[in-house]
Fold this sequence. Notes:
Blueprint: H1 21-32, H2 37-44, H3 48-56, H4 63-73, H5 77-82
Helix pairs in contact: 1-3, 2-3
Amino acid sequence: MNRVKKKVRGRPRRSDTDLNLRIIGERIRELRGYRTQEEFARLMGVSQAQLSKYELGQNAPPLGFLTRAASNSGRSVDWILIGKG
């Protein structure tokens, strides 16, 4: 008899995505430029600690953060996520 795995609802796990959070973090760091983490975090509406986690690839930045970062930098969300655009 075949057993079917039960689907689990909720946020996808880090391993369920093809995106590399460390590289996304490096791009966010590049967008920050000469500003301090504290200054950039205030501009983006997040805490400095949360920005640090995004830059280190420990947490995935939410869509709202990505769109604000893209619009403030002249880059696209695609560029932040995959390096194109």
